[in-house]
Design a protein that fits this description.
This protein has 202 residues and is an alpha+beta fold. The chain has helices at 23-26, 33-36, 55-65, 71-80, 116-122, 132-135, 160-169, 173-176, 178-185, 187-201, and strands spanning 2-5, 11-15, 18-21, 84-85, 91-92, 105-107, 113-115, 139-143, 149-153. A 5-stranded mixed beta sheet has the order 1-2-3-9-8. A two-stranded antiparallel ribbon has the order 4-5. The chain has a two-stranded antiparallel sheet with strand order 6-7.
Length: 202
């Protein structure tokens, strides 16, 4: 593990071939679902970023989680498939025409939005939880030319209440994301990140 200074981005934490922005350990965040009601799944310029290795999972599990999707979501998948390429050339989830709504969403009777894939995962009927980009939010992952990855904090006005809640509760971004960071990058990675946080935060 090492540290360095890069322009105006603060301290960069390097753990193996992964670079982590200082903000991941210094900023606060905790999803405030009663306030946002899952609005991040229905508003945006494009769908959620996807990894190529996730595409087979989306297709394989579709017969299970599609039963929870809205009709317009299933229609969109029939039209576009399980992913689209957005204007930036990135692989993302399909969105319902004319809206920012992810095709894979589902709603309860009170209008609360959920991920149909994750609901099936928690019910034990789906082995794929949800796209990594959704699980890791507010971290956004950028692939580097050397094969490594950069983990940066993404700030979205829709999640303002989550940043405020995290500050009230004293929950840092990396602490809120302990489970996905550990499962996706390994226990050793998370422990190294914890150690870096202690140094940076004093």
């Amino acid at each position: 593990m090492s540290y360095g200074r890069r322009n105006d981005f603060g301290t960069i934490i390097q753990i193996g071939d992964i670079l982590v922005s200082e903000e991941v350990v210094t900023e606060f965040f905790a999803c405030d679902y009663p306030v946002c009601k899952g609005i991040c799944c229905v508003i945006g310029d494009s769908g959620a970023p996807l990894e190529e290795e996730e595409l087979d999972n989306l297709e394989r599990e579709y017969p299970v989680y599609s039963s929870l999707m809205r009709p317009q979501g299933r229609t969109q998948v029939d039209k576009d498939g399980f992913f689209i390429i957005d204007r930036d050339g990135d692989i993302v989830t399909p969105v319902v025409d004319g809206t920012g709504e992810c095709a894979f969403t589902t709603f309860d009777d009170n209008g609360n939005c959920f991920c149909s894939i994750e609901k099936c995962f928690f019910a034990g009927s789906c082995s794929f939880r949800k796209p990594r980009s959704c699980w890791l939010y507010p971290i956004r992952v950028k692939k580097l030319s050397n094969g490594g990855q950069a983990l940066n904090l993404h700030r979205w006005h829709l999640c303002e209440s989550a940043f405020e809640k995290g500050k009230r509760e004293g929950t840092r971004v990396y602490e809120f994301l302990r489970e996905p960071l550990t499962l996706l990058y390994g226990k050793d990675f998370y422990e190294a990140l914890e150690a870096a946080a202690k140094v940076i935060l004093g």
